[in-house]
Amino acid sequence: MNSVRAMQRPTPAAVLELLKPITWFAPMWAFACGVVSSGLPASERWPVILAGIVLAGPLVCATSQAINDWFDRHVDAINEPNRPIPSGRIPGRWGLYIAMIGTALSLAVAATLGSWVLGAAVVGLALAWLYSAPPVRLKQNGWLGNSAVALSYEGLPWFTGAAVMAAVMPDWRIILLAFLYSFGAHGIMTTNDFKAVEGDRKLGVHSLPVMLGEDTAARLACVVMALPQVVVIALLAHWDRPVHAVIVAVLLAAQFVLMVPLLKDPKGKAAWYNATGTTLYVLGMLTAAFALGSGGA
């Protein structure tokens, strides 16, 4: 009997795969941008900074992955049947249990970091459940779903990083940059949707590539990624940070070059662009964070 029960529990390797550590990078990077943009010295705040990094990545983001995979298990059975839940390596309702445990742990850690951090965590976790769980299931609509993910991956972690450092509401310029880069991340989420177009069509998931067509969705994604960066460049110049503005402009110009092959073959080049153009995008984020953190804004 004990051996049967052991077989019904997921292995640590399967749980780790479910939580997708590779996805933790984006919110952890955004959290670091928040820390940098605060302009406050980190030397005396390392315990809370490390706690915040864990909260952004291994807790909130990982929990969102478990939530998504649990409610997306039928789609994954078509698109990616080797994932932990559809393959049976996460058996029974363990996917749901892991999502619930992750939610509770995330809120507990966030509560130790202050009310602003707790508030951001509540919003992020609420969006994670609304994104995947019926009856709302925001991911059924590419406009709403991508907005929720973009805010959770970029804006909220950035806000959290600044709030951890200051222990108060972050400066309005920090919030503005976090919002702009969240807006641009909507385009990144659209390019990420190309990998699941076939399964989304079969199951009625209205991603932007499904609703608009792959070519139109790719063009829209490029515009959405580029437009907020143009605004950031103008703001940095206005805030007397010309060097930072030029760096972001150069990074954007390089993204334009990489967008050319993406637009020619959206489905074939989407993953490639996410590994190249998105890297330049997040480097621009960090540049903008340094601009604010240097005290010149």
Written overview of the protein:
It comes from Blastochloris sulfoviridis. The protein is an all-alpha fold. The protein has two domains: 1-170, UbiA prenyltransferase (Tetracycline Repressor, domain 2); 171-297. The chain is 79% helix and 0% strand. It has 15 helices and no strands. α3 runs parallel beside α15 (266-293). It is globular.
Number of helices: 15
The second-level CATH architecture of the largest domain is Orthogonal Bundle
Which range does the strand content fall in? under 5%
State the CATH topology of the largest domain: Tetracycline Repressor, domain 2
Helix content: over 70%
Q: Find the CATH superfamily of the largest domain.
A: UbiA prenyltransferase
The separation of the N and C termini measures 65 Å
Taking pLDDT < 50 over at least 5 consecutive residues as the criterion, the unreliable ranges are: 1-6
What's the helix-strand series?
HHHHHHHHHHHHHHH
Subcellular location: Membrane
Keywords: Cell membrane, Chlorophyll biosynthesis, Membrane, Transmembrane, Transmembrane helix
Pfam family, one: UbiA
GO biological process, one term: chlorophyll biosynthetic process
